[in-house]
Specification:
152 residues, globular, mainly alpha, two-stranded antiparallel ribbon, two-stranded antiparallel sheet
């Protein structure tokens, strides 16, 4: 889950280097799905950078990338340095927990201004229910695909 709108320094760079130069239209910039794609891309890049730092290699393997994602820590300081301050919650991923903080927030559409707004803080779900479902589905998938536990 992530925040909404275009009030982030990263959008200033996108405008300067892409939209204003004609390298991208920016037609959907600031929309929820555009922002979600930017957030996903940023997390992928940070996972790659983490893997490269861990291995000391620029050309990483799929296993290296998995390990990088499992060691990924996103702090507010890191998100601000990327130009996305307060864009999403801080979190740390591990081998045991690929889901990060498992929080969500509610967004509301303002039809008059054609904008989305985050109207609640990031809050955790019912982890007793969610974790049980994750564990059950993971165990079933592992059994169906003859996989053994890798973590812990």
């Amino acid at each position: 889950m992530h925040n909404t709108g275009m009030d982030y320094p990263l959008y200033d760079d996108l405008k300067k280097y892409l939209y204003d130069t004609g390298k991208a239209s920016g037609e959907h910039a600031g929309t929820v799905l555009y922002s979600r794609g930017m957030y996903a891309g940023m997390l992928a890049a940070e996972g790659i950078k983490t893997a490269q730092k861990m291995t000391g290699k620029s050309n990483i393997t799929a296993g290296d990338l998995r390990d990088g994602f499992e060691a990924l820590e996103m702090t507010e300081e890191k998100m601000a340095s990327i130009g996305m301050p307060n864009f999403g919650p801080s979190f740390k991923v591990s081998c045991e927990s690929h889901g990060g903080p498992m929080v969500t927030a509610i967004q509301q559409w303002d039809a008059k201004n054609k904008t989305w707004s985050l109207i609640t803080p990031f809050s955790p779900g019912d982890m007793d229910v969610i974790n049980r479902l994750i564990e059950e589905d993971s165990a079933a998938y592992a059994a169906e695909n003859n996989l053994s536990e890798r973590c812990g």
